[in-house]
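Dear support,

I submitted the protein below through the web form. The confirmation email said the job was done, but the results page showed an empty box. After a refresh the structure appeared. I'm attaching both so you can tell me whether what I see now is the final result or a partial one.
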Amino acid sequence: MTTLLAGDIGGTKSLLALYALKAGGHFELLRSERYASNDWDDLAPMLESFLGHGQPTPAAACLAVPGPVEAGQAQLTNLDWQLDGRQLAEATGIRHFELINDFAVLIYGLPYLNSQQQAQIRPGVSRPEAPLLILGAGTGLGVAYGVPTPTGLIAVASEAAHGEFAPRSQQEWELKEWLASKRGLKRVSIERVVSGTGLGEVARWLLHIHHPGGDHPLIPLAEGPELPAAVVASAALGESLACTALEIWIGCYGSVCGDLALAGLSRGGVWLAGGTAGKLLKSLRTPSFSQAFLNKGRLEPVLASMPITAVVDPAIGQFSAACRARMLLA
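What the results page shows now:
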């Protein structure tokens, strides 16, 4: 039996899965495990623990990791792990072994999503010969492009989230100035606003303006200096300040999405992933998002034709890594 190892490695948790490769290129999940990343000194002993069950050595492995991957090596963003794909391949005995950026890997899963793994945000016409864009607001903001080739998509990793946040209004300018002052920043990146963390920051800014005395029910829900995005999103169902915070954030997200779609001329389509995609479908389908996405002057017609789709499968990283591992055998 031919098996594939797929992994979605994160600063907080790591997911490892073993798949059986079936006829026709299909694969079946054999087992999966979730690990607390901080409980391990390195990735190699985690892999040894997962694979040490008397099963055949996987034919190929793809592990998605947070941060840039260069020449098969990666320094993880939020863990003191320096990874080397060649050393891990030797340690596990897996011949075809690849480390890949945890957002770039999603490109390889997109062509194989079923209807339950995705949800339409805006209709459009996808051009199969054109690049596509995937971005996603989770703890941070992930960005990657997919470039079509005769043998399939090639993922191009991006650190566009660390570009400068560009306010579109006096309100957003004041938000940026508050963030820089509050966090002691010389510059405010896109990710500081357009991320799950950023949604909490928008709400904290509004609390600072409208409730400086600390007399708002959201304030006790803050975890130290942070206000969790899930708390704000939940409160937005009925509380006006949280609703305003979410609307501001959704507009910023839509604008950044439009900017990045233009940067790559992503006529192949725009995909939204990350922890917020499936949880905020209703908000992503509002005019606050679509108008901000389209508001690019003379280039609005270019954007208007691009379909936008949300990836709603929480295990998309693991699934995409399995798709990429399968490609390594071709």
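Response: this is the final, complete result; the empty box was a page-load delay. Residues 207 and 257 are 27 Å apart (CA to CA).
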